[in-house]
Protein: Protein STICHEL-like 4
Organism: Camelina sativa
Amino acid sequence: MSRASSSRILKDSNGDMGEHLRNHIHLTNCIHLKNHMHNNNNNNKQSPVLSDRSLLMRDLVVLQRSRSLRDPSASPNLKEDHKDSREGRRRSVDQNVVKKSGLRWSGSSPIVNFGTSKVTPSDEKFDRSSRKSYRFEDVNEVCSVDSVKSGSKDRVSKVNEAIVKTLSDQLNEVGGDSDDLVSYNVRPRSNGHRRRKFRGTRRAGRGVNVRDDVGNESEMYIASNSVPRGEKYKGEGGGRDRGQNMSGAVPRNGCVPFNWSSIHNRGKSFLDIAGWSLSCGMSDSKGRKGENDMLMLSDSSFSNHETLPLLVDSADNEEWVHDYSGELGICADNLLKNDQKDLEFCKKSSRKNTRWHQSFTQKHAPRTFHDLLGQNLVVQALSNAVAKRRVGLLYVFHGPNGTGKTSCARIFARALNCHSTEQSKPCGLCSSCVSYDDGKNKYIQEMGPVKKFDFENLVDKMIDRRHQQQRQHLTFIFDDCDTMSTDCWNALSKLVDRAPRRVVFVLVCSSLDVLPHIIVSRCQKFFFPKLKDVDIIDSLQRIALKEEIDIDNDALKLVASRSDGSLRDAEMTLEQLSLLGTRISLPLVQEMVGLISDEKLVDLLDLALSADTVNTVKNLRIIMETGLEPLALMSQLATVITDILAGSYDFTKDQRKRKFFRRHPLSKEDMEKLKQALKTLSESEKQLRVSNDKLTWLTAALLQLAPDKQYLLPHSSSADTSFNHTPVTDSDPSNGVVARTRRDGSSKQDLSFIKRPSVEDIWLTVIENVRVNGLREFLYKEGKIFSISIGSAPTVQLIFMSPIAKSTAENFKDHILRAFEVVLGSPVTLEFRTESKKDTKNVGLSNGERYHESGRRSEIIEVAESESPMTRVRRKHLEASQNQNQNQSIVKGKVSLAQVIKQAEGNTWSKHKAVLIANKLEQENLRLEPRSRSLICWKVSRNTRRKLSRLKMRTRWIRLHSLLKLVSCGKRLSTKSPPR
Ligand SMILES: Nc1ncnc2c1ncn2[C@@H]1O[C@H](COP(=O)(O)OP(=O)(O)OP(=O)(O)O)[C@@H](O)[C@H]1O
Ligand SMILES: [Zn+2]
């Protein structure tokens, strides 16, 4: 098709047919256009449309290849496309393409075009009514083949003729009219193939490939033209025209495939390059937003005589040329070489990658101030500025990503130029709004991240333009303006002083800090805060409804909360989830975003709350192996507890395997325990935040959740350090030792026993935590814990059955240490010893005898260091006297003197036994004293010993006060020579 003819067609389509054509997109559009072309041909003999039928057919082929055409009804995007059909813009770009390349216009693409908004009746409805009603309207307005067939509107009849024939019929008719078509037909390609082709093209014979892909050329234009209204950097006045103007050479236009934009943010620099040095309109700085999937072709409206010489000199940009790599680089290289064929090919390739995808952010970008969520102050100020015509020169929109800054800049620009007198601006209906939506508004210029910008040239031209058009605001939107160079800023600041009226610069960036003060101080600054979850959820719900996504409310909430106030992030996540094609539930979202499911959380909580130490640690380890952050897990645990307390957690899972959560509803007592657990977690969270060893703290915190058996976190609070508890056995008489103590160390009676994991539990957990397999078995068979003291300096004594076993264990000290540290949650001092006869006899552990078999545990009761031994004994004494009836068995383990006294007082032991035990205690403590600061250090002088033995010899009935005397003697001694 000749340029003249294509221009003619386009002129027609923009003229009489324009309004009508805008009602159709995709197949209908294309066919309809064809239909019009027929009509046109009949009516206007100068238009050689029919003679170019083959080209039309080629376009149809291209369209047929698109997903939406293969199955129009199955593609939600198609609906969307139809809903949001703004083909005017597309067409305008097509015009451009046609003008420049001699290729002819082709109809549609599955990419939703946000370009035109006001052509169809439905769109009018939208513009006047709420967004919601618009969307529903739009759904009804879907211009699939079917809907067109069944419709009764005028245009349907015009289209009918075209759609009676199937595409293949039409193709057959065309047959081999076109080489392009043939070449297309014989080369069906997958996407991957296309990309290979693309690469190959650059490296090998480009020309040939370009010819081979002629079928795709028009396809590319479709995509290129289907730029959503929301696209940034549409390159008005720039793009190809600028390129021509500046270089006087072949235009350097190109499109960047949308999936390239996903390599953003780094891609920014490339897109910058491509967008500017290629004179390809504005680049996509926001690939990560999914906003701008490709570089835009320049507006047809910016024909040479209208072109603003906005863009940097290509020579200036040479430095950028090799900043990028991969396919982007290939495309850009080609473009930079001014190779028209490559240019077309690049465009084609890019369209291949973009044509079937339009992100939710594009589809659902806000179009009016009313659509802008959560930015009420900004909206109010800007719409008032427009209404009162109090418009400044420089604006800066700053704030976190995805909060609507760029969208707002666009809306503002449109509102500034909107001709509407009645409605709130932008109306979406006036010629200015329409031309913007069509991509033809020359007064609104959007630029991506640029380093350089020819402001000098700009201002001259602006003045020219201003002479031409007085009533419009020439608005420049600089997205990601922080990329601008110092020179650029200087130029802008100079420009500010002499800028003509009705020129507006909107600078968009994430932080004011990145802008020079000289600029910032001249700007009206608008901050865009993060969006509230509730706004995000609301928006997501609407999108889900429109896109027919089946998603649970809980899942939506999670998506919103994970998006950190960025609606774009939320929309992207929703889009990603929608690809799963199933009902989107909370666990699904959790899995997708890398959280663990509530069920697993409750399982873990259940184990922790039911004091299943080993499995808690085991389960925790499994969860952590998934790479979850300890803090994230802790906060998830806290959330799930809160949900359970609030009654909003649904225990749907089989509860039988659970212990703590077995009963439903939970008893008051259980709820109380949960509250306590929440408190513990929130306290531990502080520690977790500052700790380098977060996992250890998390483990310790979890082990603390057990309401009956508690580990105390070392150093977790001053209260705890002042009164440290050893893991003590519970009140089971067989365990031999009972600790009745109060946390606050007061002498008040406290009958509630603090049950703690037994030493055996700890040992097994530690073994569990040992990372060396063989070592685990060895430890299980050969070793055991002789004593543990938990306090400011936790010390553990391990006892082994033989010296060989001991030295073997010592070789693996590091591993064992680590395991202890994980379980006890703090650094541990480890000591190794060999089992002696005495140990066996006194501690009640014989070779091969396991703790659980003996039913006895070796224990040391640790007493707070802050408390003097005397006070301690008195307190214990008092406590003991109040628990006289406590029946205890003979103690074979190591006990505190306090307990000896207590037992003696309680008449459960004979005095003789008390003395024997006191003796034993003396020996043990003497032996242990150097090893642990936190033990009662009861050093006895020879003198005292003599006294003691005399006591024993004199009478078998040792009186309590004698024992106390002994204690005080011990105290004196220990004061004199404090333990290490
Ligand atoms: N306040 C908002 N109201 C409605 N939609 C929004 C809002 N903020 C973001 N969005 C959605 O996110 C998309 C991207 O928003 P936009 O580009 O305007 O954000 P931005 O603040 O400019 O982000 P960035 O700082 O990354 O450039 C929009 O197309 C829209 O779908
Ligand atoms: Zn308007």
About this structure: Strands lie at 394-398, 444-447, 474-478, 503-509, 524-527, 783-789, 795-800, 829-834. The chain has a mean pLDDT of 59. The CA atoms of residues 25 and 108 lie 6 Å apart. The first strand starts at residue 394 and ends at 398.
